[in-house]
Amino acid sequence: MSMKLLLVNHKEVRELLGMEACIEVVESALRVLAEGRGDQPLRTAMRLSSGKGMFGLMPAYLGDIDMHAVKAVSVFPGNHGTAYDAHQGVVVLYEGEHGCPIAVMDGSEITAIRTAAASALATRLLAREDARTLALIGSGIQARTHLEAICCVREIESVRVWSKTAERAQAFVDQARDDSELEFKVCDDAAEALHRADIICTTTSAKEAIIRGEWLFPGTHVNAVGACVPHAREFDSAALARSLLFTDRRESLHNEAGDFLLAKQEGAIGEDHLQGEIGDLLLGRVEGRKDEADITFFKSLGIGVEDLAAARYINDQARLQGIGSLLDFSEAPDGND
Prior knowledge:
By secondary structure, the protein is an alpha/beta fold.
């Protein structure tokens, strides 16, 4: 039997996966997962003996679409500030009836878009309705997609940017000004960027805390995107202790999130500090912001069901619009290897 395997490259992923659509796709996936109709194991990772990075596998299944997928991704932090995304990989999508692969897609752009979409969903659920000022800590690809995503859910008026390399921050702002009429400012340090910010997105490769709890103002919402391994953090313990903590997946938080694990290790928070998952918020199982002065904190780990849902959407749109390349992919005679 012959089947057509769809190949979708970086540019095509960006063309097909619009941010507003991706926010809704991620919302649906997290809702289905919270309802118990999906499988989401922890990612597995292998550190490369070269010391340059790691290689990970992120499988997932969603019952509402009866499909599964795996993202195979290499993470090279040294790519920050270069022409290459720190995340390089592919997402392979499988249909559920016979378990056949039906699409292979660029994973870097899917990661960039769906990660920002998850932050936008958390922002829509947790940030104050009158939030207007955005602080971006970091100036790479995730900063670009987060700027777009947050503007989809709040009427942002001004954006402050800080990066450890001032030249990169300025280059980011120069490009953003060409694409937007928002007010931008490059800040000298992170504290200046966070001063009275309504929404904060941290998208760095920091290993040690670069954000202190005393810099967070009442009413702020935080999307913490970097530091997805147990020994790395972007925020100090005081920041976690002051916040109402939410995440995309409880199991991932307890195994991968250095911001949470190190704060707990230092005695600043307990095991019960987590308020719930974004899926719990969607289903009304937990309460989000209780007061205008609350500091809400979304710790994003990035999970496979988000990649799967995005890949399914891309597959449907690509086949509908005739975008991508179709490759003959033949099954062995009689199903034998």
